[in-house]
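Listing 4. Sequential folding, example run.
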Amino acid sequence: MINHLPILQVIVPLMAAPVAALVRKRGVAWFITVLATWASLAIAVLLLLDVRDGGTIRYALGGWAAPWGIEYRVDTVSAYVLVIVAGIGAIVTPYALLSVRREIGVKQAPLFYSALLLCLCGLLGITITGDVFNLFVFLEISSISAYALIAMGPDRRALHAAYKYLIMGSIGATFIVIGIGMMYMMTGTLNMADLARLLPSVGGRTVTVAFAFLAVGISLKLALFPLHQWLPDAYAYAPSTVTAFLASTATKVAFYVLLRVVFSVFGVVFAFETMSLHWALLPLAIVAVLFASLTAVYQGNVKRLLAYSSVAQIGYMILGVSLATVTGLTAGLLHLFNHAVIKGALFLAMGAVMYRVGSVRIEAMQGLAKRMPWTMAAFVAGGFSLIGVPLTVGFVSKWYLVLGAIENDMWLVAFFVLVGSLLAVAYIWKVAEAAYFKDYIGDLDVREAPLGLLVPMWALVVANFYFGVDANLTVGVARQAAELLLGVGP
């Protein structure tokens, strides 16, 4: 069984998805989903421990050795992302029981859980595969299920948001598959390790164009400014559980794909010397941080506010990549994990507000801290981490980003990181001010969210502070992954 963990990582949620869809008894589909997500987390943790002790794991499907057969490949980078994705799934699914009943209804719940498991399967498959065409297949599995999940939102505008995401996502997928086709045409292989070996000797305009197509397609999936237009509506109108899950996983996996393609397939020399990728990513990352943060300040819907904040946080991750150093890449990988637990906590808090109040607009939260003290305290705690207050995971990410910028003598970049944090203070303060310093004008029956919502929410809040105080594990894994990607490790 231990030898087959890589395939089980994908098979467990994939097999559970149709079972959840077919079960019609109340709560059974949810229970199956919880079992599958926690099993996926256990497998991911075991894979990470195995990789840290014994190095890269290669799993040949059907016994067909790469590059002729499909290979699953687990190294420090992929194992790190597997734990993040599976971990968020394991936390969000217990939360979903009450939230889904309120926002979607019992009748549609089995189909919801099935789509959620398929989305998880796709994200895990993207992370673990060593074959670029299978990466595209898993990307489509996760995307199509995400469109369905977003469309289930209680607001009719969720349908428009899902349609916009469908159009933008399809364009991104088309760019990616064209890039993959060009690489296959030039090398005759789809295996990532084989592509990394053959591409440098092939060269030529076709490889350059393939790189450009892949970069644009992945940036669309990543929601990198200015290709982020699908994200605010998708996050604002999706069911609360879906928003928390996608915000913590989907863009993080797209960021992983960018790292894998840039560093593992094309290589550092081609990407940063031949193509000068950093001169494209650096200004886009800075503009994303500033523009998206400023836009967030003027939002009245808190989920939409946090969506624009996510665009800014993606900018921080891309900023780390653009530095092309161990410290910079460590910062980007750290923020991949840290932003997942930050946004997970914040969106779960908004889900609890939606559960009790029925709205996530700022005016609906006036004086709400007196009615829902634990929920609003969780939001403020997550807000501290988003800002980058010391002893939180957000501070650790930004500390390493500033260090990376200073190492490269980019003092202006370090300054922009600090400006982004100040803008985060502004939009988090809007919500805190309404909740804590204005009079309550809502329904007198509103009370604190149930434990089923509070426990997962506070689990992520505690993670924000635990990994902010003791960052040895996350920093160690992120640095090891950065060294592996840059080819400077032992």
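-- end of first protein; second protein begins --
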Amino acid sequence: MKLQLPAARRAVFSRKREDATSGAPALTRGLAMVELMAQQPQGVTLSEVTSALKMSAASAFRIATALEELGYLRREEGTKKFFVTRKVLLLGQPQATSRSLVECAVESMRQVLTITGETTQLCCLAEDQCVVIDQLPSVHPFKYIVDLGSRAPVHCAAPGKAMLAFLPEDELAPLLTQLKLEKHTAHSITSRKGLRTELERIRKDGYAVDHGEHFDGIHCVAAPLLNQHDQAIAAITIAGPSSRIPAARFAEFGRVMIDAANEAARKFLE
């Protein structure tokens, strides 16, 4: 499969390359390289990078080596493939004065795992997607887990909807206008009116659910971490098979998630 950046990013990268004499070409290429690799959890070879970004092999090697030395990329010895590291992933998370969001949320996540036994994740918003920045795997042999950095459309993921519901209206309105409400399963919300109704329910109840909206048979329950203005900065969610997270227990699990999210937010903001 031929690797490439999304069309919009390719256009920007092309323009930047043309204007390199007036900017920072190495920085532009380095960021494009990180973006490309972030979309490929299976890793990317140097030749794939040079082909996708139309860079010389020498330039790609020099930039990749520098990013590896700085800890943003790692190279697998056997395959020689490059991968983005957790350091890149954590750049985008909210930061308190002395502790990261992950540090403040991990104890609450452990408590959720103990109570529910299900995979527990910490997520943040990245434009119109929900990004997993930390994860504690389920205690069950059959479990739902994803790679850190994995993204899901906000309209069909419980943590995404939990964060949307508590965005200020001046941020929420333009975001809803831009969203592509794609249908992933028969349960996916595909209308803006339906999503607005769902967000109103989430604000009322304090938690969000995903009853097989992204993947058939996978249910999620999430609650947002709120700041002093009751605006979402992140969300904690559980995810697992519908047989273990049935709709009949959504409210029960919702209370667990609200308590966990509130405690994590308190630690983050104190």
